[in-house]
TrEMBL record:
Keywords: DNA-binding, Transcription, Transcription regulation. The keyword Metal-binding does not apply. It comes from the Bacteria. PANTHER family: TRANSCRIPTIONAL REGULATOR, GNTR FAMILY, UXU OPERON TRANSCRIPTIONAL REGULATOR. It holds the Pfam family FCD. One of its GO terms (molecular function) is DNA binding. Residues 1-67 form the HTH gntR-type domain. SUPFAM superfamilies: GntR ligand-binding domain-like, Winged helix' DNA-binding domain. This is FCD domain-containing protein. InterPro entries: GntR_C, TF_FadR/GntR_C, Tscrpt_reg_HTH_GntR, WH-like_DNA-bd_sf, WH_DNA-bd_sf. The lineage of its organism: Bacteria, Bacillati, Bacillota, Bacilli, Bacillales. The keyword DNA-binding applies.
Length: 217
């Protein structure tokens, strides 16, 4: 709730075209405007003050501190998401990396056919200039299933909501998929050849590329 309120306050600043030094409505007025409690509003104000969007002067009021900072508020959000994705990436390296190794040892002929078909569809979508995010996700899930470890699969599925952030906006753009496309094929080649070391090496190349894309975004 405080994050939503802070966004509403920033929207208000933009809509009213407020400048540095302009006064915002009182706490009481904003609780009515945004339909929130005083505690949520005060948390939102503390966040905006910490990021230099506003300044709160006790007994005097709430003022816009730096319009330039407000304009870059979106970048603050992106930086937080980047840190979050990098943390998830650490988990992906550990858990999915193990799944890749196990898949190379345990994959069945039927699962090889399924992943081959998945990569063929991936190729067609890519060549047609269509979104490949969902087929990319389907490929990774296929590898997880091929690991034939229900506990590992359930753990990976339990964090699927966070995992899917790699395939959504703002960082899940086409560049992410174009730049890692080749590693899906080389990693799968290692899995199909039942070579865990080779498959894991290609998986780690993919993770390294994703990390670079996130850091450079």
């Amino acid at each position: 709730m405080p994050e939503l309120v802070s966004q509403e306050i920033q929207n208000y600043i933009e809509e009213k075209e407020l400048q540095e030094g302009d006064r915002l409505p009182s706490v009481e007025a904003m609780t009515q405007m945004f339909g929130v409690g005083r505690s949520s509003l005060r948390e939102a104000l503390r966040y905006l003050e910490a990021t230099d969007v506003i300044t709160v002067s006790n007994g005097k009021g709430i003022y816009v501190r730096d319009v330039g900072t407000y304009r870059f508020a979106g970048k603050i959000k992106i930086e937080k998401e980047k840190r979050f994705l990098l943390s998830i990436l650490d988990v992906r390296r550990a858990l999915e990396g193990k799944a890749v190794e196990l898949a190379a040892e345990r994959i069945t002929p039927a699962q090889i056919d399924e992943l081959t078909a998945c990569l063929q569809e991936y190729k067609l979508l890519k060549e047609a200039g269509k979104s490949t995010s969902q087929i990319d996700l389907a490929f990774h899930r296929g590898v997880m299933k091929a690991a034939s470890n229900p506990i590992l699969y359930s753990v990976l599925e339990s964090i699927s909501a966070m995992y899917e952030l790699f395939f959504n906006e703002p960082l899940g753009d086409r560049k992410l998929f174009d730049d890692t496309y080749e590693f899906h094929h080389t990693m799968f080649a290692g899995i199909a050849a039942r070579d865990p070391e080779r498959a894991l090496a290609e998986f780690n190349k993919m993770m390294n590329r994703i990390e670079t894309i996130i850091r450079d975004y």
